[in-house]
Design brief:
This protein has about 750 residues and is of the alpha+beta class. Helices cover about 50% and strands about 20% of the residues. The strands form 5 sheets. The chain has a 5-stranded antiparallel beta sheet with strand order 1-5-4-3-2. Strand 20, helix 22 and strand 21 form a beta-alpha-beta unit. Helix 8 runs antiparallel to helix 9 and helix 14 crosses helix 18.
């Protein structure tokens, strides 16, 4: 086999057939998109000053273009009256022929200059050739008339049949086009690979063809078949017969392929390996020879599949029943299929990534939608609860107020009439007025306490107190009410007197027990029992209130500690109350760092258990050190930025957040004042035109509730004269852009410090 055999056809042709081929070359040169030059014997001989015997004996047609280069040569046999013809599109063969022509041409000839220039450039070998050209070539070289064909063969003799070679070229092109079409039409990688393996095995007429994929449980030491669970495996396979054993999911011994690891880098660089006899190639590895014999591998051809410069896998053809010599055309074709499969794999990977990102995005959208829906439901529930709370408050407040106004009016009326009014009635009215006033004060205090806790303005006063005396005082306060309703109020104090001292806020602990005992007495019928238990467990004090009241349904327990909640409308009508007691209790417990739990059975009773940690270390951080608490809250006040540029807003936001400021960004300046009025920040940063900045700052400073807010202006240029006017329009300071992070924080801290000084005064 010569080096040009794969791209060269030889045949003995009649004069008529050779002339038809010459006409075909002229048509090819004139085809749209070729833009080539056609050189013939006549054009060359016209430039030679004296006849040349060798050149005159040849007839040739040489087409040169940037798309393709193809040569037809024919030497006329005067005895047989036929042409010994050669067709080639091999670059090196054409280059040799051009050099052959140049030696007969004068140095000053036109064709000589054109050929020298063209020979210096890169010639293009187009494989496969254009389909129209190949079809016409087959029609000329393989005539349909059997008689004519026999005449040619008998009269002139055939050097080599060209039909099979040309038809093989067409079949290769068809298979390549099929693979390319599938890549363009489908992103299903498995379908593409299955079809490619099946069709390629049939085309090459091999016994078995497989795709070995790295990274499917195989070792990096396996470059050949995929047979180790740590590197990869055969993922696709096509066999000519079931008599040939399958290589899918086959595992080989570790030592069989360890000496072949050097091939991986060669494969990655695009090398194609052809082995005609595996016994000779692997004679040094007894283990590997045994393995190949077991799976009937006599010859093999391997082409890499390289995706993004990484060795993805191998395309492997096996001959199982006999040895096989692999032609260069087969190697090249297998390599081309591997390259196109690499494109398909890369596209499939990109598609899989897009699909994964799509799923992730859809999942996030679903989650976000659910969060928004839950937030909306929570908001609607909160609004409904607050509406019910306001309705309940109207009743809770009216009842004591009615008593106070009504009875005090009666007393005033009698005193104005100068008539005697029974003393016992006066005392009864005054007692009712006092009780109603106390009840009204309790309701108001409860609301105020809750609002303080919600706003984060509640500060514990941690003190040391004695649990036993504390428990007796609480028990004594509720004994009178319990006796009036014939309820047995029991105190079970289970703390060792030596361990009775405890650090907490005694007033708030008393408030916790007040709400729990008040609820227990309220929902326990006459003749029932309420028990207050107190004991110590390690560093914790446990306060437990148990009653034999109406109990709570299991599905209602999660609502117990919600703000503005009362479990049933009927309970609210029967027992009254604000619905804030247990919510306030829970927040007071958590403010101590404790927990509250509830157990209840409907119509049998409830048990509330509070666990509070002993906190001697927090004694110095109570109300006695209120100054440090205030500075703490001042150091974390909020700042509003009014800025339309997202990049600037992001920069400022990250700076302020890192400096422990609460950051709020507003893009729309038209609604900024309303937002400032609602949030009441410590400072406002304006990045606006002076007109808008003046309007916002003056509005803020003119409001009694907002005038203490500091205003910082961002601008590209401000002179001393400008600042004189700006400072009189409600702006406290300015900063020139581009923003310097350290300077921005310095200005903000200075504004905060000025505010703290004003508050201290």
């Amino acid at each position: 086999m010569t080096r040009f055999q794969d791209s060269m056809l030889r045949r003995t042709l009649s004069v008529r057939v050779f002339e038809e081929l010459g006409s075909l070359w002229r048509q090819l040169a004139a085809m749209e998109g070729i833009n080539g030059i056609l050189i013939t014997q006549e054009t060359i001989l016209a430039e030679i000053s004296h006849p040349d015997g060798n050149l005159a004996k040849e007839q040739f047609y040489l087409l040169l273009s940037s798309q393709l280069s193809i040569l037809l040569r024919g030497r006329f046999d005067t005895t047989a009256l036929c042409y010994q013809a050669t067709i080639t599109w091999e670059v090196e063969a054409i280059t040799e022929f051009i050099n052959y022509l140049i030696q007969y041409l004068p140095a000053t000839s036109v064709w000589g200059d054109r050929l020298r220039n063209f020979s210096d450039s890169q010639l293009v070998s187009l494989t496969p050739l254009p389909r129209v050209f190949i079809t016409e070539l087959v029609n000329i070289l393989a005539p349909n008339s059997l008689a004519e064909s026999q005449e040619i063969y008998s009269d002139f003799g055939v050097c080599k049949p060209v039909e099979d070679a040309l038809r093989q070229q067409i079949a290769q092109e068809r298979l390549l086009n099929q693979v390319i079409a599938q890549i363009r039409q489908s992103l299903e990688l498995s379908t593409i690979l299955e079809t490619a393996v099946r069709e390629l095995r049939s085309f090459l007429q091999v016994d078995r063809l497989v795709i070995y994929e790295f990274g499917h449980g195989m070792s990096e030491e396996t470059p050949d078949l995929t047979l180790k669970t740590s590197s990869g495996c055969v993922t696709y396979e096509s066999r000519i017969s079931k008599r040939i054993p399958s290589l899918l999911n086959v595992v080989a011994e570790d030592g069989c392929f360890g000496n072949l690891s050097d091939y991986q880098e060669k494969y990655r660089q695009g090398s194609i390996m052809a082995i005609e006899d595996v016994e000779t190639a692997y004679s040094s590895s007894f283990c590997l020879i045994k393995f190949l014999e077991k799976y009937r591998i006599r010859s093999k051809l391997i082409a890499p599949i390289v995706v993004e410069e990484n060795l993805w896998g191998l395309l492997i053809a096996h001959q199982c029943f006999q040895k096989r010599q692999w032609f260069d055309s087969e190697k090249s074709f297998l390599g081309q299929i591997g390259e196109h499969l690499a494109i398909a794999i890369y596209q499939a990977q990109l598609y899989a990534q897009v699909q994964e990102q799509k799923k992730t995005f859809e999942h996030r959208v679903i989650e976000r939608t659910k969060e928004l829906r839950d937030t909306l439901l929570a908001s609607q529930t909160a609004n409904h609860s607050k509406s019910e709370f306001l309705g309940s408050m109207s009743h809770e407040l009216r009842t004591p107020l009615t008593c106070i106004i009504g009875l005090s009016g009666t007393l005033l009326h009698w005193s104005g009439e100068n008539k005697s009014f029974p003393l016992h009635k006066q005392r009864k009215y005054l007692q009712t007025i006092q009780d109603s006033g106390k009840h009204l004060l309790e309701i108001i205090n409860e609301i105020l306490e809750f609002s303080k806790l919600e706003a984060g303005k509640y500060v514990l006063s941690i003190q040391e107190f004695e649990l036993e005396s504390f428990a007796k005082n609480v028990h004594q306060k509720f004994r009178k009410e319990a006796n009036q309703r014939n309820i047995n109020l029991v105190l079970e104090f289970q703390v060792d007197p030596q361990n009775s001292n405890f650090f907490a806020d005694p007033e708030r602990v008393q408030q916790i027990l007040y709400h729990l005992l008040n609820n227990a007495l309220k929902f326990t019928s006459d003749g029932g029992t309420v028990i207050l238990r107190i004991w110590r467990e390690g560093n914790e004090a446990i306060f437990q209130v148990e009653d034999t009241g109406i109990g709570i349904a299991e599905n209602q327990i999660p609502l117990l500690f919600e703000s503005f909640q009362q479990l049933e409308t009927s309970r609210r009508r029967t027992y009254g109350g604000t619905g804030l007691g247990l919510a306030l209790t829970k927040q007071l417990v958590e403010l101590h760092g404790g927990t509250i739990e509830v157990e209840s059975i409907l119509q049998e009773g409830s048990i509330f258990t509070v666990r509070l940690p002993n906190q001697p270390q927090r004694q110095q951080k109570s109300l006695g050190n209120l100054k440090s608490k205030q500075s703490f809250f001042q150091g974390n006040r909020s700042i509003i930025l009014i800025e339309s540029n997202e990049e600037i807003a992001t920069l400022i936001g990250e700076l302020l957040t890192a400096a422990n400021y609460q950051f709020i960004w507003l893009m729309d300046s038209t609604t900024a004042v309303k937002t400032v009025e609602l949030l009441e920040p410590t400072a406002v940063i304006l990045d606006q035109d002076l007109t808008d900045a003046y309007q916002i700052s003056e509005t803020i400073k003119q409001s009694p509730n907002l005038k203490s807010i500091k205003v910082l202006l961002l601008s590209y240029q401000i002179s001393s004269l400008d600042w004189t006017e700006i400072s009189q329009r409600g702006i406290d300071d300015y900063l020139l852009k581009p923003i310097q992070p350290n300077l921005l924080l310095k200005r903000i801290n200075a504004l905060m410090s000025d505010e703290n000084d004003e508050e201290d005064k």
